[in-house]
What does this fold into?
Amino acid sequence: MDKVTGMLEITGLGHAYGSHRVLQGMDLKVSQGELVTIVGPSGCGKSTLLRCIAGLIRPSEGKVVLNGTPIDGVPDGLAVVFQDYSRSLLPWLTVRDNVALPLRRRGTGKAERRAQAVRALASVGLDDAASKYPWQLSGGMQQRVSIARALAYRPSMLLMDEPFGSVDAQTREDLEDLVLQVHRAEGMTILLVTHDIDESVYLGDRVVVLARNPGRIREELPVSLPAARDQIGTRAAPEFVRLRAEVGRLVRGGAAKDGPPTVHEKPVR
Amino acid sequence: MTTAALPLRRRSRAGGLLAGLVRGVLHRWLPLAILVVCWEAATRVADSAFFPPPSEIVKRMREMWFSGPADHLFLTTKAGDSIAPSLGRMALGLLLSTVAGIVLGLALGRSEKALAYLNPVLQFARVIPPPTLVPVFIVLFDLGTQMQVASIIFSAIWPILLNTADGVRTVDPVQMDTAETFRMSAADRIRFIIIPSALPKIFAGLRLALSLSLILMVFSELLPGTSDGLGFELTNAQSQSDLPTLWSVIVLLGILGYLFNTILLAVERRVLTWHRAARKVAS
It folds into this structure.
């Protein structure tokens, strides 16, 4: 796969729930090893876009191509980290078995699956939690488990749907740094959706700003911050401050111009 | 919370455990013991042929069923002739209705359309008092075991089927999305996601099915054409005005019902540990 064509290519993507148009005319490319953040006001169709890429809903128009193959149904080699970790993890399985479960279809033996799960857990700093149950862990640790589950699956691309929307500020920063570490250490291609402007700039190699009514791409901004980032220094860097203000203007200013979000805030299942 | 309680627990562990056990037994069994003593006193004073004192019932139960040789677990041949066939039919009926109820409930719960179409029919079938169908089964099936097992199944299957369908229908959509994005196979989804999340409701259905199958077991044996079982024992004793035996069967049925329910609760507690613990954390 040559890197020029990109790992994920979205062309002319649009979606409507009945007569309500949620997404329109979206073109987006994500290259191998890139971390792209998508940010936008509420009601801009962020979640719908992610569900289209994940193959959970079939878009009404346009094309999504992953690794050169058009997406029709749920694609292989994709892992999703949902915002609602407490509902995404299975409470009747231990943390280790939760992480090992998706590996069953790979045909590896049980011992090998468990070993892979334990390695993935260690890579997110959860060496001791393997035999615990998800509900015995804090929210931040549970989200680490779902990240470990996605990593153990060895996807070619990781989709994250507002992954840190339900954790406290300190945990959020720790998890952001975990994502950066995974991105750098494993060269993982990541597409992360957030409503947090700071987060989109802090994490992204590129920030895609969405507008609403209907959901569309307003602007794509390259982030020229160095790859090594830290919560204190990076957030004080002039480039960060400048980008953050620009993204903020695009999100807030655009939101005011485009009117309030319409009723379909969350995708209908 | 645990750290504070630990030293206290350790200090009085042996004594505390015994005291707790004694207290538990007292609280649970004392009212029953008092009731039995009062019953004993009242029946002795009244001296009625219809109400034999509990001591006499126990004596009869021992003579009839539990005075066998040690290598038969003290069970008599009579116990083998009356208790065993009843329990066998009940176990078979309950097993078949559990398997069929869960399989059909899974199929129905996964298909919104099928459930919508069939729900009125199911609700109708469920509210028919099962004993009214026993005469139909007598005509349809061979007298004896076949008819009796069919009667048990027709009463016990509904709570399991409907509860399973309900539990399956309410599987968390985020869990199903997760399974879908990881492209889990249908069999894996059923085994690791759908059945476990429906289990609390399946167990609730099982508890109902258990008591229904006990009722139908006895009821189907009360009818003509039966040659063994506890229900047969009842009609037989009634025709001979053998009241101690009549009462013995009633007491034994009570004990069996209590025993089965206790066993089922223990299994449920073990299987659904995660469910109770997760709910405690959530609240």
About this structure: The interface with chain A takes residues 172-175, 177-178, 180-185, 188, 192-193, 196-197, 199, 274-275, 277-278, 281-282 of chain B (CB under 8 Å). Chain B has one domain: 70-282.
